[in-house]
Amino acid sequence: MPILFLLRRYLVPREGNLLSFALWVSVVGVVIGIIQLMLVLAVMSGFLQFLEERYTAISSHMVVLPMKTENKTTIPEELKKVPEVAAFSPFNLGQSMLIKEGVAGVTLEGIDLATSENVTDWNNIWLAPPVGKENRPEGQWIWLGSQLAKKIKAKVGDSVEIFIPGQKNQLQPFKVTAITKFGLYDHDLHYARIDVRVLKKIFHKSDAGQLYKIKIKPKVPLVQAAKAVRAAVKKQGKVKTWNQINQNLFLAVEDQKGKLFLVLEIIVGLAGVNVISLLMMSSHYRRKDMAILRAMGFKARGVFLFFLAQGAVVGAIGISLGVSLGLVACRIAEKYQPSILNEAIYNTNRLPFQIEMGDVILISFAAFVLCVVFSVIPAIKAAYARPVEALRYE
Q1: How far apart are CA 279 and CA 349, in angstroms?
Q2: Half-sphere exposure of 92 toward its Cβ, with a 13 Å CA cutoff?
Q3: Which of 42, 39, 32 is nearest to 322 (CA)?
Q4: In this structure, are residues 354 and 46 in contact, taking their beta carbons and an 8 Å threshold?
């Protein structure tokens, strides 16, 4: 085909002239834009995955909140019948003050030791795990979040007191038997775990107000499992999935990811401006050749497609190099990055990276479209140039 022949002959000039320099400037511009986009989107996707893992560990896949009802709840019996449910565990919550070397506000989560390990992977959460017989403690034991323990200077084996306003026995002694770290700074600073029966006793909570954490079976879609659980508990309880519980946070991160993509796409757009410069110079340098081809019967449509193809090829080369180098840059940044983040703000001191194929495809497609669109104006100019004007002074 004439267009392919012309591309092979003219796309990469053999002589080291200004046109060759403009070609590589255009390619480098696209490459840099692609790398920046990949790094930023990989970090945003990494944060989404990081938060998903942490919040799933805290609230499990879903939670059942009891509704007020005059009849005795049968939620546990109904959950056992749901095939999508792998395990569930009762829990409850209460607010108090924790006293040792200082005072700290704390949310107490009452857990059931017999069933909680089926829902929560404590082996990956314990910073200082229980040892020996204390692995199954009974009575006034407490597991402190890592930041909470640091704040009140408590360690495993220490005794602490819980102050409960409005109760007859306002000070309750507890023994620290484990330190937990969920990886979310605010949660590890304000949460502690005790036995659910003890919590209901000191806060005078009834069984009617029992909450349940639910773990679903592997490869079961969360939406499908939530629908099945809602159908099972009916009006006895309200089902909340982990992403509904933390909806505002995840929507904010996803929205920020989308906006950053649009903003950084401007960088790729600026690189596309170099494509216009390249093709304008190309049309100027090759006006004589194009005029001769037009005089020999080469149609304006062919000239238009030739210059459009040049922009597409430059974009394809830049995208291929950019994606390849972007993948390498993400791996290097993930492995060798310093601890640059404030854990109290970002819940981690390192940037999490997660490369998603959908993001790579979107970046490549958007960059390619921009390069082709920016090629249209020079292509039209070259296609409708009059051959006689180019050959008049030759």
Answers
A1: 46
A2: 19
A3: 32
A4: yes
CA distance 12 to 98: 72
* Residue (of 197, 46, 235, 24) closest to 111 by Cα position: 197
Question: What is the mean predicted confidence (pLDDT) over 129-148?
Answer: 74
Residues 6+ apart with CB under 8 A from 176: 141, 142, 143, 144, 149, 154, 155, 156, 157, 158, 159, 160
Scanning the structure block, which residue is given the tokens 């005794």? Answer: 159
Q: CA 354, CA 42: separation in Å to the nearest integer?
A: 5
Rounded CA-CA distance 307/376 in Å is: 8
pLDDT of residue 291: 62
Beta-sheet pairing, 62-66 with 159-163? unpaired
Contact 130, 177 (CB under 8 A): yes
pTM for the full model? Answer: 0.71
Contact 62, 241 (CB under 8 A): yes
H helices of the chain, where? 2-10, 18-59, 75-80, 113-119, 146-152, 185-190, 196-202, 222-233, 242-245, 247-285, 287-295, 300-336, 343-346, 357-383, 387-391
Structure token digits, residue 55? 């919040």
3-state secondary structure of 338: coil
The Cα–Cα gap between 34 and 326 comes to 7
Q: Please state at what angle helix 287-295 crosses helix 247-285, rounded to 10 degrees.
A: 70
One-letter amino acid of 19:
L
Beta bridge partners of 195: 111
Main-chain dihedrals φ then ψ at residue 127, nearest 5 degrees? -90, -40
For residues 311 and 276, give the distance between their C-alpha atoms in angstroms, rounded to a whole number: 8
Query: Is 286 exposed, middle or buried, given 0-12, 13-18 or 19+ CB atoms closer than 10 A?
Result: buried
Pick the range with the lowest mean pLDDT from 35-39, 83-87, 154-158, 348-352.
Answer: 348-352
Strand, helix or coil for residue 165 = coil
> Which residue in the block uniquely carries the two structure tokens 């830049």?
318
Is the pLDDT at 351 greater than 70? The verdict is yes
Q: For residue 218, how many other CB atoms are within 10 A of its CB?
A: 6
Which two tokens mark 282?
């190309």
Under 8 Å between Cβ of 44 and 346: no
Q: How far apart are CA 315 and CA 323, in angstroms?
A: 12
Beta bridge partners of 163: 97, 171
